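request received
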Amino acid sequence: MVFFIIGLGLGDHRDITVKGFEAVKTCKEIYLESYTSILGINKLQLQEFYGKEVIEADRECCETGIDQILENVSKDPQNNYAFLVVGDPFCATTHTDLFLRAIKLGIKVEVIHNASIINAIGCTGLQVYRFGETVSVPFFTEKWKPYSFYPKIKANLDHNLHTLVLLDIKVKEISEENLARGKKIYEAPRFMSTQIAVEQIIESDKQLGLNAIDEKTKCFGVARVGFETQKIVSGFLHEFLDIEMGPPLHSFVICAKELHPIEEEMFQFYRNNQQKID
Amino acid sequence: MVFFIIGLGLGDHRDITVKGFEAVKTCKEIYLESYTSILGINKLQLQEFYGKEVIEADRECCETGIDQILENVSKDPQNNYAFLVVGDPFCATTHTDLFLRAIKLGIKVEVIHNASIINAIGCTGLQVYRFGETVSVPFFTEKWKPYSFYPKIKANLDHNLHTLVLLDIKVKEISEENLARGKKIYEAPRFMSTQIAVEQIIESDKQLGLNAIDEKTKCFGVARVGFETQKIVSGFLHEFLDIEMGPPLHSFVICAKELHPIEEEMFQFYRNNQQKID
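response:
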């Protein structure tokens, strides 16, 4: 019996590895993690491709139901199980936690890696070795404006490093109002756009008085990396206030102050080709 | 006609994605980049799996022969071609250069992403978001000891970030002696072990007088990530002088000063399980 934790990569059903696909076909039950990222296709398309049922594991399931699933797995040594994760299995802490819990129950775990935005961001032409700490930008609200991600961007700029900026995803959230009333009513999913992210980045810079960015700060907006509709746009920070990247997921990069020659060439390339390339 | 640049991932032939595998099957010629990394299998096994010939593209080919290949591709709009890269296509600058050259010749390029050590290093349980700049450690010689990678490790430690340390690979190198004599005799391939890397790291710290590391510095050695024989070992820096990680490729991680609780748990886990896990 093996409990597979399988990365699905970034695009559609065919971005799973051959190894992962073969593993899935041996499994009794297949869980799909569905709240830290999204695929370009839905559960039904995955089911059709695998020829098997896929059980969606939302946030609630991952946080509170997972022990029950692992308990069942550990009691069924005859069968394989799979837990599918968009991107790479270890790119979210919650899946590392899953790995540890399974091991503790004596379950044989096998991890199958895949691309994640962490390495696929190289599609911009920026060298993946020159990225500093990754930051996540949360949706600001009127009352809650956590600027704490911003000094990390400044530190990266000070060290002449690029910053990968991950944008907030709100899936299966309950509004404060409904939460207070004990009503389990989910809000519509929300995915932060590069436009909102840039607004919040500029606001953070002003509020903290750091002056780390200006109109000459080079940036990349990327959307739907690995999807057929992938879009990569380069430009100066303030230009992104007006650039529409289309449907989710979006990510953003704030470039180091100096670009290497090939990085500069790629920046110019995507500045002149603001459309889908590959 | 499409020129595919396809990531093979980190393990064996079955780590290619289904999308990549399907693309390969449509190609007239398939080139395999074979000098920035290594796969767990050889060209013959790939050929058997694809049912097609695979042409090895060594350093010489990539640096000087590639223009001729692209020229041929651009003149043959009826057929698809593939260039296979271990890991992810954009994790080495030379492949970004290939991408740009192809585009300039008007060739339609399609990139198929995969896992690379940049994201798969999450297998240690360390959060991929908390890594600072990646460093590469070159083989020191008696005359040439470039310590320039070391201040980057210190900067990461100062910011409480992990450092991924990539270790030198020497494939198809010609010795200085033979180079001076104009003899094209290749040395045997050499792959740096974590033991050599740690020796050089300790030497660099001493020579630069930075005192950034000590006997309490937590580290991970990883070998053959994604292979069936993958090995992950955690321990304190100096312990790695005696830890044998086996065959290549090796990579190394110097942990941030403070670990998050799940990171600490994974550190303890691999400290107590110094053997192949998944």
